[in-house]
Please model this.
Amino acid sequence: MVFSEQIEQFTSALNLSLSSKNFVKVSLGNYKGNEEALKQILVRPVLIKRESKLAFTFRYKTRDVVKNLNLNEGINLISEYLTTGFKIGTLFTTERDLILEELNNGKIVLRETKPSTKEVPTENHDKEKSRLIKPESKPYLTELKITDIDGKVFKNAQDKFRQINHYVETLSSLIKELPEGTIKKVADMGSGKGYLTFALYDYLHSVLKLNSEVVGVEYRQDMVDLCNSVAKKSAFDQLNFVQGTIEDYNAEDVNLLIALHACDTATDDAIYKGIKANAELIVVAPCCHKQIRREIEQNKVKNDVSFLTKYGIFLERQAEMVTDGIRALILEYFGYKTKVFEFISDAHTPKNVLVVGIKSKDKGGKNKEEIIEKIRASKAYFGIGYHHLERLLQL
Model:
């Protein structure tokens, strides 16, 4: 599409829609230019540091690239692309849609249609999400240095705040699978500074309106003291932190047991406590899998994946999968429906695997012998003498 009077009319209409505050978006398509793999450009309004800009999303065959430009730069770039490769351009406003098209015979036409939408989009750069944990009026978030006193999330705590909400959203979906009123007592094993413990308590009491007791179990006394102080300031009367190990904690009346990033066999200790307590929901995010890796390394069994496990990184990943796979089998043996999935808290933070056990009405029954055989076969195949959780439960 070469420069024409119609392109000038199109960009003038774009300018007018921006000044009139009825601009919705611009779409450029049918690209025939020289930029490899470029397919489409979408342009929408954004507000960055109180300045109106245009956010360009360049859609390539295998990736998207986003750039924010000021209004004049953006309008000029749209005009340039319409003259150097895009055969169709559509301006969406709340008053009308304007379609610019170069036909097969080279003729350029500009036509107007009824508006596709009557709503002006938000200019928020980061679209507001419906979060289960709101930052406002949360003393614990202020005490833990996530927000200021007015409820504004600190810039250096944005990732942590997103992680907290994603964690609560994940647990929320799991809790919904349980009969109403199931969660009476929660134990968070290895609660650390308590970010997630506080958020879960907040969700259970403020959103679900449950009268649940929540206990954070933490070995470091300074963390326990800090968290109990924050709980008191937040008037969280049924939240308590205790000093101790997962292995020593008495979890007999726990309905929901959580252990995030408990190292190596401490995850097994947590699952063991949950099974023994007959907990309705067990959620663990394992951290390191040294016990099974040592077993595999010591026995060096030759199998179909030996060509992979001769490399340390692949051996490590294999140990992770085998360890958590056997954990899932053991949970099934004791009557739990299991889920294993990636917990991705944010694009800039690591992925974690969540192993989840939800108490099932089916207690295992006829499948128990089959599960035991699967565990035995897996151990033999990988040269594993024992799995710590298996030993705890005396299987």
The two ends are 73 Å apart (CA to CA). The longest strand covers residues 38-48. Confidence is low (pLDDT under 50) at residues 345-349.
